[in-house]
Amino acid sequence: MSTFETIQEIIVDQLDKEKEEVQPATNFREELEADSLDLFQIINDIEDEFDIKIETEEGLNTVQDIVKYVDEQLA
Amino acid sequence: MSNQAKVRICSVGKYVPEKILSNEDLTKWLDTSDEWISSRTGIKQRHISTTENTSDLCTKAAESILEKSGVDASEIGLIIVATMSPDSQSPSVACKVQGNIQAVNALAFDLNAACSGFVYASSVAEKMLSVAPYRYALVIGGEVMSKVVNWEDRSTAVLFGDGAGGMLLERNEHTHSFVSEDIHADGTRGSALTSGEQAVNNPITPKTTSDAHLKMSGRDIFDFVVRSVPKSVKDVVEDSQIELNDVDYFILHQANARLIKAVSKKLKQPIEKFPQNIQHYGNTSAASIPILLEELIEQGDIQLGSNQTIVLTGFGGGLTWGSLLIKL
Fold first, then answer.
1. Which end of chain A is more exposed for a tag (fewer CB within 10 A), N or C?
2. B178-199+208-327: what fold?
3. CA nearest to B39 within chain A
4. Which positions ≥6 away from A11 have C-beta within 8 Å?
5. Which residue of B has its CA nearest to A44?
6. Cβ atoms of residues B117 and B123 within 8 Å
7. Distance (Å) from the alpha carbon of B223 to chain A's nearest alpha carbon
8. Contact assignment for A41 to B226 by CB distance below 8 Å
9. pTM of this prediction?
10. Complex ipTM, two decimals?
11. H/E element holding B107?
12. Residues of A in contact with B227 (CB under 8 A)
């Protein structure tokens, strides 16, 4: 599974959305109506899944932002 | 446990101050809304003390517990009050309660493990009682959080409420309620939630300032709870050699409905097994678990002596967290 697919799955599960609604350009807060606690939970699951630490949720607005962040950590 | 006496829960009681502040009431001085508070926390209202201090709430909870049990205050040998918002450093809240209810034969002290206080205090009381010459111990969690929160800080002021609850434990020969426990602390992460800081202040120190208000890092606390609480619940259940499915209710500290949902999801246990009353009381810290336990008993969902299995789990400042597996 690609980083995007793994993250997509986590977001779909946490926010109870359809896969189609979660695309690279999707904005969490505006399009998925995620609040800060949703983001904490998504970040938490991503940290566990990839065994990385995401220091701050600032600057993470779209799905692609997180994919990029995770790929950089894993590189 | 074989050569120690058995300890059972004989009665549970609570008291909350009469005055209720709704989310709407808070919008009079805070830039917040009912929708914001209830969607993020599950809280709709909280009871707030007008004049009663922590020892007053705890005394009334103690009186209710004794009334339900029919036990005389003079038969109590131990009183522990779990609190992070005592009336004073000295005398302790427990000593004030001891005096108020005239439990003349009881030793009494406060224990501070923040929101985990009731789990910590129950564990300590059970150990002391199992080897003690006395028959009864009173364990109370009581808080007036409204005096430690910063009422100008909308991120924390909306979360907390005041109240007290507790239980009477009896040393006996037949029933042992306390099956297993899993209790922890991690002081290295203590700065995630602080309250009542007192800087050194005397004629020879440089001038210092300290802000005693409660302060909390939301994300750090969220991370801590979502990672540590499910593990603690799993561990305490595993230690009892039963399965998560065998537990009737998981009675979690009522900090945030969203956190409780996250824990239920991690444990893959239905949310119906995680009773909640946070909507009515907010986060009452060490008092939340006994207040909820009392309500579940009053509603008939839980019966003392029924052989039901419950897990009590607290988590909070310190950091502290822990679970007790109890067979009623």
1. C
2. Peroxisomal Thiolase; Chain A, domain 1 (3.40.47)
3. A35
4. A17, A22, A28, A32, A42, A63
5. B223
6. no
7. 7
8. yes
9. 0.94
10. 0.81
11. strand B107-111
12. 44
